[in-house]
Each structure stands twice: as structure tokens, then as C-alpha cells.
Write a structure and sequence with these properties.
One of its GO terms (molecular function) is phosphorelay sensor kinase activity. This is histidine kinase. It catalyses: ATP + protein L-histidine = ADP + protein N-phospho-L-histidine. It is an enzyme of class 2 (transferase). This protein is an alpha+beta fold. It folds into two domains: 114 residues, Signal transduction histidine kinase, dimerisation/phosphotransfer (DHp) domain (Helix Hairpins), CATH 1.10.287.130; 150 residues, Histidine kinase-like ATPase, C-terminal domain (Heat Shock Protein 90). 54% of the residues lie in helices and 15% in strands. It is built from six helices and seven strands. Strands 2-4-5-7-6 form a five-stranded mixed β-sheet. A hairpin with a 7-residue loop joins β6 and β7. α1 runs antiparallel to α2. The N and C termini lie far apart (77 Å).
Length: 279
């Protein structure tokens, strides 16, 4: 009887030790994961500080130089003064965009995006965004075409965030298409469980070596001397917004020149596309 009791006690001790070892392993794994997360956030902070410092320098220098020129030349020609003022306005808009993107980036990274999800018709939102960018397209002489199914495509998402994604993708296309010969197509297709949006253009496309990093933050592809200005945040933020809404975003390589960015989102509950699929 005593031997049986001792054996049971020995088994219990071994079991307790095994449990403690497992808890220790789990605790160490959790601690390592938390340390990795903190290191990633610290690297992000350093990247933001370095990038913002660099990006702020050029527009601030330009604004100060032009301001000093106008201040020191009260008799400056009106046309030249207007040109300088337009440059100042453009540079302040650039600073505003940078500030907004950095705020978006930090909010997304902290998991605090201030979301206001609702059921919206993504097709109607596309029409609204396109209308708001009509002046941009006209200024560059860009031909724009949209393709949508006749029925609504309802998704549950923050409308302002989704608008931001669409504006980012369209603005990105505007920057790269040839002036007066540019073409941008935005196509919406509806399936049983989700909706897909593709924004394609006839620009130079994304170089093969840059494609794996196209959605990385603070990364811009192509030749630094010839590529349009930017911070390398728009696509990263857009993808994070889409993923937060339960979708995914990708880059396609069309058979001819140009780029095509696509994303898909799940249809809202009760809004399945059965019987109305765009093939």
C-alpha cells in the first residue's frame, strides 16, 4: 500500500514538474514575442523619425526661401509672386499629406485606427471618388474608364478609410502614367462571397526586382532620379486598411506594360452575390 502511495506521489511530482516546465516555456515564448514586438515598434519609430526629418527638410527649405524672397522684394512682379505662392501652397499640401500618413501609420501600428464601420456600396463610393478626382485627371490629360456590375456591392468597412485606399491607388496611377496619353481603368467584379477592385494603368509598371517590396513601408521602387515624389507609405497603409477589413491586396503583372493593383473585401452579411456574379 505504501509503495503504491509513493508511486502515485512520484507520478504527481513528475506531472507537476512537467506542468511547470511547460508554463515556463510558454512564459519565455510570450516574453520573447513581446520583446520582438517592442523592438519592431522601436525600429518603426526610428524609421518614422528619420524619414520625416528627411521629408520635412526640402519643403520647409523651399517655403522659407520663397517667403524670404517675397518679403525682401515688395516690388516683385505679380506673376512671379503668384508662381512662388503656388509653390508654397503645393509644399504645404505635401507637408499635410506627410503628417496625415505618419498619423495613419502610427495609429494602425498601435491598433487604434478610430474605425467607423458601416455597410456601404463600394461601387457608389468608387463613382464618388472618381468624381472628386476629375480635375486631377483632366489636368494630366488622363483617360479614365470604370467597369461595374449593375447591382450594388455591399461591404462592411469604414467608408473614409476605404476612400483613402481608392484615392491612394488612383493617385499612384496618376503619378506614373504618361502625361496626355495616360489611361487608368478601375474595375469592380462581384462574386458570391466577396468583391474585387482592380486599378490598372498604362505606366511603366513595377520593375521585377521591386515587386516583392512594393507594399513595404518607406520603400519606393524605380530610379530615385526619375520616379515621382513620395514617402513610400501609401501602399503600405492601404494594404493594412484592407487587411483590417478582412480583405487582401496584391500587385498583378499585366501581360503588356503598366501596373495593376487589386484588392478584395468580403461582402457584408446578407449581401452575397448569388445569382448576380460578374464573370
Amino acid at each position: 500500500m505504501r509503495r503504491t502511495h509513493s508511486a502515485a506521489r512520484y507520478v504527481n511530482i513528475r506531472s507537476a514538474r512537467a506542468t511547470l516546465r511547460a508554463r515556463k516555456r510558454d512564459g519565455m515564448a510570450a516574453l520573447r514575442a513581446e520583446n520582438d514586438r517592442l523592438r519592431d515598434r522601436e525600429r518603426l519609430r526610428d524609421d518614422i523619425v528619420a524619414t520625416v526629418s528627411h521629408e520635412l527638410r526640402t519643403p520647409l527649405t523651399s517655403i522659407r526661401a520663397l517667403g524670404e524672397l517675397m518679403l525682401g522684394s515688395p516690388d516683385m512682379d505679380a506673376d512671379q509672386r503668384d508662381m512662388f505662392l503656388r509653390i508654397v501652397v503645393a509644399e504645404t499640401e505635401r507637408l499635410t499629406r506627410l503628417a496625415e500618413q505618419v498619423l495613419d501609420l502610427t495609429a494602425l501600428d498601435a491598433g487604434d485606427g478610430g474605425w467607423d464601420d458601416a455597410d456601404i456600396d463600394i461601387g457608389a463610393l468608387i463613382v464618388d471618388v472618381m468624381a472628386g478626382m476629375t480635375g486631377v485627371f483632366a489636368e494630366r490629360g488622363i483617360a479614365v474608364a470604370t467597369h461595374q456590375p449593375p447591382c450594388p456591392a455591399i461591404v462592411r468597412v469604414d467608408a473614409d478609410r476605404l476612400r483613402q485606399v481608392l484615392v491612394n491607388l488612383l493617385s499612384n496611377a496618376v503619378k506614373f502614367v504618361p502625361e496626355s496619353e495616360g489611361r487608368i481603368d478601375i474595375a469592380l467584379t462581384l462574386a458570391r462571397q466577396d468583391v474585387t477592385v482592380r486599378v490598372s494603368d498604362n505606366g511603366p509598371g513595377v520593375p521585377l526586382e521591386d515587386r516583392p517590396h512594393v507594399f513595404a513601408r518607406f520603400r519606393q521602387g524605380g530610379n530615385a532620379a526619375t520616379r515621382p515624389p513620395g514617402k513610400g507609405l501609401g501602399l503600405f497603409i492601404s494594404r493594412r486598411i484592407i487587411e483590417r477589413a478582412g480583405g487582401r491586396m496584391w500587385l498583378e503583372a499585366p501581360p503588356d506594360q503598366g501596373a495593376c493593383f487589386g484588392f478584395s473585401l468580403p461582402l457584408a452579411a446578407g449581401a452575397g452575390g448569388a445569382g448576380r456574379i460578374d464573370q
